[in-house]
Design a protein that fits this description.
The protein is an all-alpha fold. Helix content is about 70%, strand content about 0%.
């Protein structure tokens, strides 16, 4: 089946859930909860203040599957509920994560970019999906790292050393896993038509 045919049919979730306001709300909440669940895969390595987590994998999957409005709404809900007290940030934390808030803003931007590019069919092959997921990770870093450096009154080089470099292998591995699984799900949907 061609990429054009797949993109015209809608997302996987639109095939399972009929479009409605109720379905949209449920998908937004589920997307936020999925990111919150993956955020519990979390550990911190001294001396770094940024934890290793699974939440960026959730952000990228939500961004590439829910569509633009729902993905952005999911990330906004994730942030607002976490700041309000829902313990679903990394390792069950909540509240305003001042040093790490830039990464959370990056989640919204990355989810929007992922949705936009997935809507153009950029996630239908393994190489395209892996590239898309790596790009999403870079967007998160592009916002999170400078914020981290500013919060600690440090240089951008310090931010890169402490907020990016230690995480590259972990995040590339997450991008490869997600990038490999996503096209397989699109092929599965194509076979069901």
């Amino acid at each position: 089946m061609s990429t054009v045919a797949l993109t015209r049919q809608g997302t996987i979730l639109e095939k399972v859930v009929r479009p409605s306001i109720t379905a949209d709300v449920l998908l937004v909440v589920a997307g936020a909860a999925f990111v919150g669940l993956l955020a519990q895969i979390s550990w911190t390595v001294h001396p770094f203040v940024v934890p290793f987590t699974g939440q960026t994998l959730g952000v990228l999957v939500v961004g590439s599957t829910l569509g633009l409005r729902r993905a952005v709404a999911s990330m906004a809900l994730y942030i607002l509920a976490g700041v309000a007290g829902v313990p679903w940030f990394a390792a069950g934390s909540h509240g305003y994560p001042s040093a790490l808030f830039g990464y959370l803003i990056g989640f919204v931007v990355a989810a929007a970019l992922m949705s936009y590019l997935a809507g153009k069919g950029r996630d239908r092959t393994v190489s395209g999906a892996v590239g898309l997921f790596v790009l999403g990770e870079l967007v998160i870093y592009a916002i999170g790292v400078p914020w981290l450096a500013l919060h600690y009154h440090q240089s951008l080089a310090w931010g890169i050393t402490n907020g990016l470099v230690p995480f590259l292998v972990w995040d590339i591995a997450k991008a490869v896993v997600a990038g490999t699984l996503l096209p397989a799900s699109w092929r599965l949907v194509g076979r069901q038509d």
